[in-house]
Amino acid sequence: MNKDLFSCDLRSLGIFRIGLSLIILVDLICRATDLAAHYTDLGVLPRQVHFSQFSDIWHWSFHLAGGSARFQAFLFLLAGVFALMLLLGWRTRLATVLSWILLVSLHNRNTKILEGSDALLRMLLFWGMFLPLGARYSLDQRLGRVPQMSERVFSMGTAALLGQVFLLYFFTWLHKSGPEWRADYSALYYALHVDRWVTPFGLFLLRYQELLKGVTFFVIWFELLGAFLLFSPFWNGPVRTLAASIFCLMQIGFSLCLSLGIFPWVGIVAMIPFFRFSKPVTLQRIGPNFLPAFFFVYIFFWLLGALPNVPRLIPGHFVWIGKTFRLEQRWRLFAPHPAKTDGWYVIPGRLEDERKVDLFRQGRPVSWKRPKLISATFKNNRWRRYMRNLRKSKKHRPLYADYLCRDWNRRHGVPPRLVKLDLYFMKDKTLLNYRSTKPKKTRLLSYRCL
Amino acid sequence: MKKKLAEIFSCNVRLLALFRIGLALTIIVDLILRSTDLTAHYTDQGILPRALLIKEFSNPWHASIHLANGTALFQAFLFAGAAVFAFMLLLGWRTRLATLLSWLFLVSLHSRNPKILGGGDLFLGCLLFWSLFVPLARRYSLDQSSKASSDLPERVSGVGTAGFLLQVAFVYFFSFLHKWNIDLWRSGEGLRASLSYEPYTTQIGLALLNYPHLLKFLNFAVLALEAAIPLLLLSPFFTRQIRILMILLMGGLQLAFSLCFTLGNFPWVSMLAMIPFWLPLSSSQAIEDETMVSRILASFFLICILLWNLESAFPAFKMPTSFHQMSRGLRLSQEWKMYMNPSDKNGWYVIPGRLASGEVIDLLRRGKTVGFERPRLLSALYKNHRWRKYMRGLRKDRNSIYRRYFAHYLCRDWNAGHRGKDRLEETTIYFMLEKQKKIGAERIKLWSGSCGKAMS
Question: What's the predicted TM-score (pTM) here?
């Protein structure tokens, strides 16, 4: 096999490192706006409940060490410092390992707000630990801490990093098995009907059904074709650059139509290692080899076992490896077909003086009308994810309700206090050809504040 | 005056290096001993699962990275990490960092299971904390090996060394004050009362109970020593001679204590703490050698521990709440109430368990047949001092919530090694409360329940 196909330029890795660290920083800042709500004992997932009901035996999180906002803020700051070290390329290897530890720890503190992009970010950082990320555009290089290396390197680490991107697109293609993707190409039509995501531009595009069909066809087949083109043995340089560019454009396109949080950015950063920034030079083989190769094979079988109608392939005795290092991934993105129901939340709360307020809309009067732009009713993508999970996991609903009660009463300080609340989801089914149904009012929970 | 103060509160760097080596060895031994109860004390399968800990000790100031995961494997990993840092401390490699990390891991470990902590653990935590402010690695260390040692000062002084030495002095002095506040000790009966609480008394201690006059004399001797030693250790005159005498007396006192009482690692940690008090044979000038930051921090924490000790000894005295929380968070909160439990009643546990075969065994004595007669030596019932500490609390009403978890742990532990008809099905925990010595004991049932399917 041609090693050149699986090699990376040191400069690409340097830019990749800068991109990674910027995403981590931005993610931390966004998450910090919900510090108390998502990560403390006063939030939606207090540690006591986490320990007794929701903690996976092999998951670990240093964010569970303390339950106060102050302690979480300290860990966030620490993670910020490590991300800055990564950005500057100062003691890069150490910064990568520490950033990875704190990222996994953060993810495990509250898994209900995680999405595919978090898994991808985690994996990119994970492979980054095996790579010379700090060899270019870094303080380490400036300070002469980087050993002499060829501009282009190959190791099992570079192969695994590039291979990870292949796995992402290849397995998401495998999962997208519904006729909406493969036969009638209505997938994007449905995707743009998922109210919690769709942006005004997405709503605008929804008018052109034929265009959407074309784009759907392109997306599904380019996910397969492009994944292989990234490793084309012929005209490798131009072909892989072109394929990577198209994937980037695809991500940008998605982000214009749908509010997907950090996903497009992680998707673009993942493509950086495919770009060449130096003239063809002699390839240098570097280490380490065993660990990345082992983990890559492990992940491949993990992914295969996660396909529908395939039994789990990783034996029970080895599941701990995937869980401990957080290699878990499935890439079921809009698969097997995009959701066909969505809707919006109304959370009427009753105050002591019998007044009713909508807790989901900062205490405005309750209205059952469809909001103009549903995606704008969510504060950010973490809440968007959380509220979707709430529809599926019953156990989390009382925790959320309890948080709403505490939050309201703390925020308002003075009476009237919140006494009771109801959690309603206005379920809206997507039909073909723009036909509409009446939204169905479903009560998820009725809760009396303690 | 200033020179004299600097003289009194100075430490010899060789002794500090010896202390560092002793400290590191103590931490390593502590880790090894604790790891024999890894599952029982630190995992979700043990006596204090994480959910219960958070529910019962909602102190927001006690963070513990040992809460990150509930499996024995992960705890073993953290233990190994702590051992690596202790080893760095032993070798004196990146000593300041090693001290900081060792302290963080120790405090975290303490917060993971406060139910098994003794005075020795608290003392060790304080010593490690103050070690951050003294130069531990000026001799016998990898940090120092590259530099020439001849032109470095033999003796250093500063707020850090003062804080370190005062911390040690406080332990004895406030222990004396606590005892002095109690009539039993003032009337000469304190030592006898302490020895009468048999779960903490050794064979020798029991024998001593037959000599009431001797005990009365020793009672006052202990009081006198605990009051005098800290004052004389910091004496401005004849410093060297008095210190050597005091250290010998102190060693004798600790040795006597450890012969009479089961105290876990306390006597050992106390001896360790005496090392920096030995004065150097060379009478070179003490050099002030600390950074401004270190000086300010050390002064602040010195005030903290002084206030905290004053508050514990004089309940009327109240320290500001911010100091209170801060000291708690750093585990500097201290109360040196040692060896006095006049209210504690003697007693022992009997824990019968019924197997699937119908046979009944004693779980505390690992399978021997059940007997309710009094064991000869109550303190020998427990595997180690941590269990002794834990079991002492278990019978109290306010700890009733822990009994279920203890029973479940016993089930899991037994059934991990027994199958079929040897499986444990049901446990009962009795406490045999002895209201008056040698007049029989009252059998109190603390817990009774089946092991259940979930516990298998």
Answer: 0.93
